[in-house]
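Quiz preparation item.
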């Protein structure tokens, strides 16, 4: 698909867990994830957790919601992120969810089958992320995500919510972040308690609200001295993640109307570049990116964006150069490496294909939650005469997407091509077992 098609965007960017119509879409973007990490870092430190172990991902969903899936992963809905007015509000959401992790509140009441199934699919995706490191753990997670689909999303009781509120406010205050932002976030949801169950946002169901709870938050926040003013760094990263997400999800016309022509801030230039690229105007898109690079020549994410525009515009040689620069500036960023590998493959040069294999393997070692990366890696294996590895990687790709029947077909093929007992062969067996369990449950 071309970049300007609505579902092809965010490809600097994108990971689709695109299964049934009701399944969620996880948006992947190196810059956005870096921004979220920078905003979360001071809060994570105050929670006693490790910043290197916490991952924050965006789900494409207009509803106002955020939740923890496990002890390392926080999901924030795009609708909630776009409703935030200042970075402290986003940090408050993160602080609340971190409190659930730190306090061990990792079970939720069933909301409905749709949300439970979505959570199960996310579980399948995450299972692929650990497959190369722990095949047994991946198999258990894949199987468990299916068998517990009705009980994955459990609501916290009010005692847990109050505990998370209080801890979240404490994290914010200790990090020098205005704790009243937590109250502002809760007030976004307070009016929804009166809505019918069919219209209420999931956050209201998983995070029960009440005026008493908000009053409690005011009491918690009042116990702390006034926080320091918003840092320039927080404002910067908040602007980049929200601006980029907005430009991706909204029409180019809307974006260009909202961004003043005279605005040359980093966020504005990124938004203009995305809007023009969605309009298939590569010249204007590259012009905006080049303005940003003139200001920030060592910005890896600007080079990545330029590489993406060039690649989607079929300017493969220049795309490779831009991605090479981006990967040199951010050598361990897996999404940038994935884009670099894709650009190398697009040149159809045997030397570049061999190089792409190394780049994509490095990316995969750092982030296995990316079906597009696995697709490209399988292609690189096939083009370098390694059909067994191509088949098992394709199987992992379909397993990540939750398409276990198709994954099983490729895993069976891989089993006959790979050395018995090797690590890739064992991965194929894990996928086969998960596919068989899924089929057995379907028949029951």
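Solution:
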């Amino acid at each position: 698909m071309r970049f300007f098609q609505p579902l092809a965007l965010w490809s600097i960017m994108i990971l689709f867990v695109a299964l049934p119509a009701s399944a969620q879409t996880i948006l992947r973007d190196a810059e956005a994830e870096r921004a979220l990490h920078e905003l979360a870092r001071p809060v994570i430190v105050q929670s006693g957790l490790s910043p290197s172990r916490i991952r924050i991902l965006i789900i494409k969903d207009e509803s106002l919601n955020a939740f923890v899936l496990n002890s390392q992963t926080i999901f924030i809905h795009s609708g909630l992120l776009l409703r935030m007015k200042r970075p402290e509000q986003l940090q408050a959401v993160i602080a609340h969810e971190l409190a659930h992790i730190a306090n061990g509140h990792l079970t939720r009441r069933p909301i409905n089958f749709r949300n439970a199934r979505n959570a199960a699919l996310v579980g399948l995706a995450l299972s692929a992320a650990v497959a190369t490191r722990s095949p047994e753990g991946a198999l258990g997670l894949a199987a468990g995500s299916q068998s517990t689909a009705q009980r994955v999303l459990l609501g916290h009781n009010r005692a847990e919510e109050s505990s998370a509120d209080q801890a979240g406010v404490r994290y914010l205050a200790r990090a020098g972040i205005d704790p009243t932002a937590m109250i502002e976030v809760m007030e976004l949801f307070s009016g929804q308690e009166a809505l019918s169950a069919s219209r209420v946002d999931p956050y209201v169901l998983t995070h029960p609200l009440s005026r008493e709870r908000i009053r409690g938050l005011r009491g918690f926040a009042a116990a702390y001295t006034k926080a320091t003013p918003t840092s320039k760094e927080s404002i910067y990263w908040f602007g980049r993640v929200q601006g980029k997400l907005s430009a991706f999800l909204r029409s180019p016309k809307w974006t260009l109307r909202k961004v003043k022509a005279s605005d040359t801030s980093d966020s504005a230039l990124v938004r203009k570049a995305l809007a023009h690229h969605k309009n298939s105007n590569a010249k204007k898109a590259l012009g905006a990116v080049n303005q940003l690079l003139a200001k920030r020549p060592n910005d890896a994410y600007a080079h990545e964006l330029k590489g993406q525009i060039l690649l989607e515009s079929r300017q493969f040689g220049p795309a490779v150069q831009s991605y090479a620069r981006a990967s040199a500036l951010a050598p361990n960023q897996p999404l940038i490496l994935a884009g670099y590998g894709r650009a190398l493959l697009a040149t159809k040069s045997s030397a570049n294909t061999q190089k792409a294999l190394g780049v994509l393997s490095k990316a995969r070692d750092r982030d296995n939650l990316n079906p597009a990366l696995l697709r490209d890696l399988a292609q690189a294996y096939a083009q370098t005469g390694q059909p067994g590895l191509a088949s098992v990687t394709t199987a992992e790709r379909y397993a990540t997407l939750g398409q276990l029947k198709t994954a099983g077909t490729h895993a069976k093929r891989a089993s006959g091509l790979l050395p018995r007992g090797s690590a890739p062969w064992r991965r194929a067996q894990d996928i086969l077992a998960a596919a068989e369990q899924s089929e057995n449950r379907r028949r029951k």
